[in-house]
Design goal:
heterodimer, A: about 110 residues, six-stranded mixed sheet, four-stranded antiparallel sheet, about 0% helix, B: about 110 residues, seven-stranded mixed sheet
Chain lengths: ~110, ~110
């Protein structure tokens, strides 16, 4: 079945540091890929997405490129802020058993210190 | 504003009692989902529904029940048969058409059973 593997956290960075959170996937079809962000005590918010190979999703300074050859969708940001502290989930959406199933990674907690 | 509402935000129950969590959306989405989130883990799918009066079990449906009598509403009942019900519950919805069909999440309900 489909699966998503992302780097374990927590990841602790100083403000203005470069961020990379690795995500790799396995899927039988042609999935869409997503990054969601969850702030403490809240639901998940879509951060960015990519629907086909070589697409780059971007939002709020975050970027991720759909790499089919390496089955990866790594999240990057050039300069993190304290307000970026949250849990980040990588996910894929694929057709399975007649419905669009979403498979989530286990999440990576990011802590940004001033 | 369109979105998903879940109520209540916090819920406390005694062991042996059934409890129903509310989920309403005004996004006109056909599909709705219930997930369970435990500390340090990803999201696990409990039930999903693609159309009114129809729903399917997800990966961890035992001890839960749902109904879909209206397009906007997808309540989840946590029954006394659920062995470990204390968790954060997230409701989501998505369109059935479209390339990516990303899911939109509610703010979640934190259930504590003692």
């Amino acid at each position: 079945g489909d699966s998503v593997t992302q780097m374990e956290g927590p990841v602790t960075l100083s403000e203005e540091a470069f961020l990379t959170i690795n995500c790799t996937y396995t899927a039988t079809g042609y999935p869409s890929l997503f990054w969601y962000v969850q702030y403490p005590g809240e639901g998940l918010q879509l951060l960015l997405k990519a629907t086909k190979a070589d697409d780059k999703g971007s939002n709020k300074g975050f970027e991720a490129t759909y790499r089919k050859e390496t089955t990866s969708f790594h999240l990057e940001k050039g300069s993190v802020q304290v307000s970026d502290s949250a849990v980040y989930f990588c996910a894929l959406s694929d057709l399975s058993g007649g419905y669009q199933k979403v498979t989530f990674g286990t999440g990576t907690k990011l802590q940004v210190i001033p | 504003d369109g979105g998903i509402t879940q109520s209540p935000k916090y819920l406390f129950r005694k062991e042996g009692q059934n409890v129903t969590l509310s989920c309403e959306q005004n996004l006109n989405h056909d599909a709705m989902y219930w997930y369970r989130q435990d500390p340090g883990q990803g999201l696990r799918l409990i039930y999903y529904s693609q159309i009114v009066n129809d729903f399917q079990k997800g990966d961890i449906a035992e001890g839960y029940s749902v109904s879909r009598e209206k397009k906007e509403s997808f309540p989840l009942t946590v029954t006394s048969a659920q062995k470990n019900p204390t968790a954060f519950y997230l409701c989501a919805s998505s369109p059935l058409a479209g390339a990516s069909r990303e899911q939109y999440f509610g703010p979640g309900t934190r259930l504590t059973v003692t």
